[in-house]
Amino acid sequence: xxxxQSLAPTVIPPEDExxxxxIRRFLREATRTMPAERRARSWSGHDAEFSRExxxxxxxxxxxxxxxxxxxxxxxxxxVIAEELLNVGAPVAAHWIADRQSGPLLLKYxxxxxxxRHLPAICRGESYFxxxxxEPGAGSDLASVRTRARRDGAGWVLNGQKIWTTHAHHCxxxxxxxxxxxxxxxxxxxxxxxxxxxxxPGITVRPIEDLSGDFHFCEVFFDNVQLDDDALIGEExxxxxxxxxxLAFERSGPERFYSSMVLLDEWLAWIRTPAGRTxxxxxxxxxxxxxxxxxxxxxxxxxAKLAAGESPVVEAALVKDLGTxxxxxxxxxxxxxxxxRPFADLPASLMGTLDYTMLAAPSYSLRGGTRDILRGMIAxxxxxx
Amino acid sequence: MDSLFTDAVRDMLHxxxxxxxxxxxxxxxxxxxxxxxxxxxGFADAxxxxxxxxxxxxxxxxxxxxxxxxxxxLPLPLGETMLVRSLVAAASVTxxxxxxxxxxxxxxxxxxxxxxxxxxxxxxxxxxxAFDGEARLLPTAGARRAxxxxxxxxxxxxxxxxxxxxxxxxLRPPLSLRTLQAAIYSVQxxxxxxxxxxxxxxYANDRQQFGKPIGKFQAIQHQLSLMSEHVFAxxxxxxxxxxxxGAVFDELRVAMAKARASEAAVEVAALSxxxxxxxxxxxxxxxxxxxxxxxxxxxxxxSESAWHDVIGRALLTKTDAPSLDLLRRLTDMA
Lengths: 385, 334
What we know:
By secondary structure, chain A is of the alpha+beta class.
């Protein structure tokens, strides 16, 4: 079917599946006192102590080589861990991007010195990364970034601005896509990826309040920031290709359809009670599962491709669009079920979780590439562009 | 082995299950020639063990064949016939002659056995009827038949005596016949949707308006992207419900597959018509052969809500396990 290869059901290897019991036992205890409303933040919930504990237990960087402090395990091992973390709503934001994306990027393109410096700290749950892609004038049109790094002796001087950078105010490092040569009109050409130590002089990080009242994204200003020569990741001018490869990791994972799972399980707990159970609720529960399950299978199929060294960028876009559509629908469907009842003594924790999830839902189809961009990529895969 | 089999079916359907033939059969013509060809090639015995003279395919291996039935809008109950022949072989019952379909009878009354919806009933010589906790093979010749919605389907009523005359089959399918039929239709739906997507892509690349192919417009591109998402999700769900060698159907996986494909069928049909414009609404243009199938098959062996109810019950009756555990059960491969 054109560039979209068909995706086949995939087996999670038993040794990776075996990780589930242990992490589930740990999470049950560790999240016992966290209210559902807080757990609903899931991979937007920041808790450095929690991340360090996961690091101590070897659950961060589990796919990284042991030489760099990782677990040397397969992508499926990470998948099992991620699934359990997301479904219980563990506060994993601190290390999430480093574990998912920045670490693998450094492994693929970084120098040995860069790997030695960053990967063990990522695995310990101590070093946090954010992704500097969007700018005020470069959102979906990412190739028009204007932030520029100029060669300066043995290093670089960085000037410009990033925006919508998730958790920049909690991170020590940003991996920024910047222009290192040419002009904005050169588009993808002349872009490079740099590691920016966010504690350097000349950097201002300002959190932006989102519509839920949380501060999860930021604007970041660079004013003549001096970077060392080894800030460059991979090849100068190859930034676009590196970013595209990274996006397959970013888009196909379980966080693209599990964002509303805490709400789902809270709602299920209530509709399992005699007061909550109705034929309508039963049918809706079945409908939600019938949508989520095939997406999980598609996501696993892409994990297999990533593990085999492929870069299924178009398929990943397809899974993300499908997944975010469902996780976005969930709070609206559940709200409709709850408020279609003439009278119900609804639990406050359920209503709080619903309220937060409803507020967070618009971000699901923005972060990691908007719906319009993804559908454009799928169309290209289908041979329409 | 299985891919050779699939290739042979593909070639035969390509040559003989043409749009012209589908139209003829729908207009009341006979499908005997096509059926004879398919039967003599051994396709009806795909799921019968080799020891009993069949091809010995597992359901998972037969799935691509069922997809082809969908792609070609096959106007015959060949999927059902394959299923019945495999059940019959396992129960050592004599193979019924001709095409066989499946139907569920309404609750018992004193005088008749009544099947309000016999899918592809117009073409079948025999119906495996589920009635009163048992299944027996009833010849359609002895039934009072009436039109039931889709052109190829029928409502059938037998005198109760016909049930008594039919031999008890000892057929004890592990699940209800409706579940097995739903599994077949979920795969056929996935195949038909893939064909609708391909046809729509071709049309969008060919049809010129405002000086360029309509597929160059973002609105059309997004509709096609959305279609492809439905096709991928449905196909994956259908694959997950087809058991490998030695395994049996899991009712919840079938529920997922039929529910997902049925919901998608409505979306895919609507999107394809939107993209094709007026030409797609004509009798002459072949899109309708597939989109009418999508609606008919969605309405066969339970629409999405029927199967949502089955999954919902399982989810709510299973104490307090996280929903992830049900997702895993539906998708994990052994």
